[in-house]
Every structure is written in structure tokens, then in C-alpha cells.
Amino acid sequence: MLLRWLRRQLAEPSVLQEQLWAAVENDDPAEARRLVERAPFSETQRRYVEDLLGAWEREARSRAG
Questions:
Q1: Residue from 56, 62, 60, 63 nearest 20 by CA
Q2: Cβ–Cβ under 8 Å, residues 16 and 59
Q3: Rounded Cα gap, residues 40 and 15, in angstroms
Q4: Using CA of residue 42, residue 47, residue 53, residue 57, what is the dihedral sign?
Q5: CA nearest 24: which of 48, 7, 47?
Q6: Residue 30 to residue 27: CA distance in whole angstroms
Q7: What is the CA radius of gyration of the chain?
Q8: pLDDT tens for residues 14-57?
Q9: Helix, coil or strand: residue 28
């Protein structure tokens, strides 16, 4: 879900976009959160991504047991 949203929001390929995609593909929500802190998102976008990251982190914790 995060990748789909990123593709729509970051139309121009960028280093940040590639790093975020890599974090998602590597199942690394902590890295994604760090990258989002410096992303050029509006406050609304940032809140949405924070919600997605929170859900991802909860899911990762439940998978870890």
C-alpha cells in the first residue's frame, strides 16, 4: 500500500523515492520512517504516511512473534 501511494505522490523519480522503495522492499519500517522525516510531504501527506508506517510496524511486530 505504501509503495502504491509513493508512486502516486512522487511522480518524478528521485533518490528519496528509490530509498523509500528499497526500505519497503527490505521490510524496514524504521528506515522508511527515518526517510519520511526529510521527505517533501505536506502535513496531510505526512500524517497519512505516518499512519501507514504505524500499521506496517504493528504488522512486523506481530510477525516477529
A1: 56
A2: no
A3: 12
A4: positive
A5: 7
A6: 9
A7: 11
A8: 788 888 889 988 989 899 999 988 888 889 988 988 998 999 89
A9: coil
